[in-house]
Structure formats: C-alpha cells, structure tokens
UniProtKB/TrEMBL annotation:
Bilayer-spanning residue ranges: none
Record bears the keyword Transferase: yes
The family this protein is said to belong to: Belongs to the transketolase family.
Family matches, as Pfam families: Transketolase_N
CDD domains: TPP_TK (cd02012)
Protein name, entry field: Transketolase
InterPro entries, sorted: THDP-binding (IPR029061), Transketolase_CS (IPR049557), Transketolase_N (IPR005474)
Residue stretches making up the Transketolase N-terminal domain: 15-263
Keywords, sorted A to Z: Metal-binding, Thiamine pyrophosphate, Transferase
GO molecular-function term, one example from the UniProt record: transferase activity
Cofactor entry: thiamine diphosphate
C-alpha cells in the first residue's frame, strides 16, 4: 500500500488544482469543504470502491452518494480522473448558464447516482440502497460522505436508527469532521459533543480517523469497515477545512470563496510544495 499511498496522496494535490481552476472559471464554489474531503474521495474511488465508467450498469457495483453535495467540485475532479467526465469540459463549463456542471451533484452526469446537496438526504437514501442490496443478495457496498454541520438534520439520525435496525453492514458513512460550517464553528452553531459516543449509541461501529486527510489512515479505516459484520460503520474523519494551503486552512471565510489572483498563485504554489514534500 505504501507506493499506492504515496501516489494517491500526490494525486489529491493534483486534483485540488483542478478544483481551484474550476472555481476560478465558474466564479463560485465551496472551496473549503472541497479541500477537506479530497483524500476521502480519492481513497474511495482509487483504493476501495468497485466502480468504474465501464461497470455502471452492473447491479453488483458499489454505490456512492455525496451527501454534502456542496463539495461537488472535488467530486467532479475525482470523477474526471476516474474516467467518467472530461476535466477540461468541466472546468470550462462549471457553473455556467445552461451547463450540466452545476454547483451540486447532477445525476444527469455519468457516475453520479443522485442529485444531492439538500443536507440530510444522503444517508437516508443510502439506507435504501444498502437494504435493497441485502434483499437482492448483492455484493454491493454503499458509501456516503456527510458534512459535520449536516449532522444537525434530524433525518440523519432517523436513518442511523434504521441502519442499525436492519444490520446494514454493507453501509459505510464518512463524516467530514472539519469543525467549520458556513456560519462558524460547529460546536458554536450546534455542538456534537462526543460524536463517537453518539453514533455508537445508535448501534454503529465507529472508527475515529485521527488524520482524515491521510490516505493511509483512511485505507486502514475502510478495510476495518469492510470486515465489520452485523452493523453499519461510520468513519469520523478529522480533517482540515481548506486543506493544502495556509491561505485557506481552518478559516470559515473559505467555506465559499473565490480566490483573488494573488491568492490563486499562492494556493497553487502551496499545493505543489505540499505535494513535493510527500
């Protein structure tokens, strides 16, 4: 895994560049959350999931829903690298009038299972997907990524109860725990207290990923999730909003922000330096 880990860690920084170029071209986007979730998406699509542009009609494929759909720019970048989309087309058309590359996942595009971004919907839909796979005796695993601010939605916890009730061990959720949402620190807006214990009390197997921007730690956690039987698994991935550049890191103002020319140049320089340090 060490060689692959190195390659995927470097890939995450290349895809961050695509995201920033997308946001610059479209003059908008949720850049902070794109950066915090990038390693999760890269690990899922290039290390974990049985999914490709060629097997999307195979019912035994794995399924993914980006519940925090406002991080769509990172999702588009990963899907393009995986062969579903053309990155040049995405960058040129992102957030343009009449474009399919809108600011939240659009299931009219290849590789996207459902429109998402209305927070609180991803996990409930994935419960249905995972339950259907169980009923049909399919090998599919179902994954979703949620934001930590999103966990204030009551539908999340209804879905969490149902997941335990039906012993959906083919379901794995990830919480992108960057501690920031549009209106401030999550603990000031709607505190989660002991998030590990909260999910555990709902009957989930809980894995704390200390560095949620580490491909190697995510790999180990996802492998543990695969081996967990009789209950769903959630990864609490402790990430950094705006990961990759000191211009953006851990700053709530970068939840939704378009870099200036000077910021753009510094961010791209930071990405390259971080990549070379790997």
């Amino acid at each position: 895994m060490k060689v692959k880990e190195h390659e995927l860690s470097r890939l995450a920084y290349d895809l961050r560049k695509d995201v920033v170029n997308m946001i610059m071209a479209g003059n908008g986007g949720h850049i902070g959350g794109d950066m915090s979730v990038m390693e999760t998406l890269v690990t899922l699509y290039f290390d974990q999931m049985h999914i490709s542009a060629e097997n999307m009609t195979d019912p035994n494929r794995d399924y993914f829903v980006l519940s925090k759909g406002h991080a769509v720019e990172a999702y588009y970048a990963v899907l393009a690298k995986k062969g579903f989309l053309d990155i040049n087309e995405v960058i040129q058309q992102f957030s343009q009038f009449g474009s399919a590359y809108i600011g939240h996942p659009n299931n009219q595009l290849p590789g996207i299972e459902m429109n998402s971004g209305s927070l609180g919907h991803g996990l409930p839909v994935c419960v249905g997907m995972a339950l259907a796979a169980k009923m049909d005796d399919r090998a599919s695993r179902v994954y979703t990524v949620m934001g930590d601010g999103e966990l204030a939605e009551g539908s999340i916890w209804e879905a969490a109860m149902a997941s335990h009730q039906y012993k959906l061990d083919n379901l794995c959720a990830v919480v992108d725990r960057n501690h920031l949402q549009i209106s401030g620190n999550t603990e000031d807006v709607m505190g989660h207290e002991d998030l590990h214990e909260r999910f555990r009390s709902f009957g989930w197997h809980v894995i704390d990923v200390v560095n949620g921007n580490s491909v190697s730690e995510l790999h180990v956690a996802f492998e543990e999730a695969k081996s967990t039987k009789g209950q769903p698994t959630v990864l609490i991935a402790n990430t950094v909003k705006g990961k990759g550049s000191s211009v953006m890191e851990d700053k709530v103002s970068w939840h939704h922000h378009v870099p200036s020319k000077e910021e753009y140049e510094q961010i791209m320089k930071d990405f390259e330096e971080r990549k070379e340090m790997l």
